[in-house]
Amino acid sequence: MYVNIKFYFRFILLLTALGLFISCEQKPAKTVEIRGIYGNPKPFWDKDLNLIDLGVNAIFVHSGSIDHDMINRARSEELMVFAEFATLNGKNYVEKHPEAWAINEKGEKVQAASWFMGVCPTEPGFRQYRFDQLRDLLLEYDLDGVWMDYVHWHAQFEDPEPILPETCFCNHCLDDFSKDSGIEIPAMNGELGLTTRRWGAGESASDHEWLTHFMNRMKNEKNRKAKFISVTSFFDGNNLQAFTGETHGTITNNIEAPLKEGIPLSSVFQAEGSSKVYAALTEAEKSKISHRGKALAQLKNWLTKTL
Ligand SMILES: [Zn+2]
User: Fold this and answer.
1) What is the value of pTM for the model shown?
2) Staple partner for 25: which of 29, 91, 148, 296, CB 3.0–4.6 Å?
3) CA torsion 130→133→134→139, rounded to 10°?
């Protein structure tokens, strides 16, 4: 019964997602009616049943179970084929690659949440592994679509009592989070913020490529105001204290200092009251006015009073 409920739930979700996709088209497009089943259709085929005769015109199959025989048989019945792809499912991976194990707020490896085992979403090896799998899948088979399944953190919401631990607090994620402490630029209408480094030219762009794209985007903007924000936090295992540092300034018209690795914006951000961009300041000068310096100063002040 539970399996049936889960199956129908997924089935409805699939139809809903596909319906939404169709309804988001700007121009009225041809409606594609998809009546799919999730799972390997072999038991039907073993009984010589034709799925079209059963009112089904698509199959959704775990990507690891797809092979050319299945595709050929589906095509001969004029069935559409969609691959289910276990995007952030870490089962069978984290056991062999503990560096990708999701970490909870206490710094411990999380346990499986019911039957689901998540993964650290930023661990480079895992990301590469999944991207390679997806590319190989698309190169190997002529599919009608890919269902990006498990696009969520380590959690289990398909249970009557959902398991929703907070993850991931590994070094990769904390490092990425601190780098992502972003910038707000009113002229760019919320395009940046926490996703600053992944914006525009993209996550894999070099610092120079990223900054070139950014300066082109800002070229005709008269309002060059910007605000850097950084959040520093302290967690003692029970309570979390967070401190926010902000620095207001402007984006210069040109690149004013050599780029510093990982922080290209510092070559074009000039804080209010400063005559130089961030990247041209000494560490001592920068720590007095920078968003990170301000957040850390608050943390230091709090620690001094509390400990
Ligand atoms: Zn992580």
Assistant:
1) 0.56
2) 29
3) 160
